[in-house]
Amino acid sequence: MKKVSSRRKLSKKRPEKKLTFPLKKKGGRSSSGRVSVRHRGGGVKRLYRLVDFGQEKIGVKGQVKAIEYDPNRTSYLALIEYEDGDRRYIIAPSGIEEGEKIICAEEAEVKPGNRMKIKNIPSGTQVYNVEFQKGGGGKLVRSAGASAKILTHEGKYTHLKMPSGEVRKVFQEGFASVGQVSHPEKRFEKMRKAGDRRRRGWRPAVRGTAMNPPDHPHGGGTGKSPVGLKGPKTPWGKPARGVKTRKKKWTDHLIIKRRRGKK
To answer: What does the pLDDT read at residue 1?
Structure first.
């Protein structure tokens, strides 16, 4: 059975005009004009919503005015109107409704939507939109249905269990939002037809084995031929599938346990 997301709970209003601007189509091309992402092109016009990932309005209470769909991400957005009249978009937590009050403060009530310093959030709490460095804004755990779990506080770090199963340290002075990201049913959705994918800006992709030898390392042969190589390769001849691509990063020393299937 093909599943389609129900958006009955979402607001019918147009997006906030002051918080949107049009996106220019790039067709998968980089600044030099070369194709850096294949199979991109076409698609429906989009407006980009300015999202306040850091929620800089510290200590100012806000009220949820609308829960809105965003074509640029998998989660929904919540339009917040603060006591001083300012309006901003934030990533909506699962279960939040119009009219609810939220706040971003160093210490606050532990309820979905509230944002506070990681050191003040109790162990075992689900969090999302986590700051990696103090003042950098939310960088981790932002996709639909995602949440991380606070395991323990130790020194200047907090041990966080990521959605992938990885356990890593994050700085306690950073902020995180309590709860789970909205739209958790996204993982069960399926596209109904080819046009759904075209409207999202994805063009048809052709299998490498269906191409000629000059066009792809998998190409050539008669009938349904195998790859004919020791392992699969990209169109440019580099090893593909199952090859580690992560480079050494300065944050590697903060990883306590690798994600599932990784050593």
So the answer is: 42
Where do the domains of the chain lie? Answer: 17-186
Options 3.40.50.880, 3.40.50.300, 3.30.390.30, 2.30.30.30; CATH for 17-186 is 2.30.30.30
Rounded-to-integer distance, Cα 127 and Cα 222, Å: 53
Taking the C-alpha atoms of residue 67 and residue 15, their distance in angstroms, rounded to an integer, is: 10
Q: What is the mean pLDDT of residues 206-224?
A: 93
Query: What pTM does this model have?
Result: 0.88
Res. 29: pLDDT tops 80: yes
Q: Report in angstroms the alpha-carbon separations of 14 from 6, 32, 52, 156, 191.
A: 18, 35, 19, 43, 25
Query: Is the pLDDT confidence value at 3 over 70?
Result: no
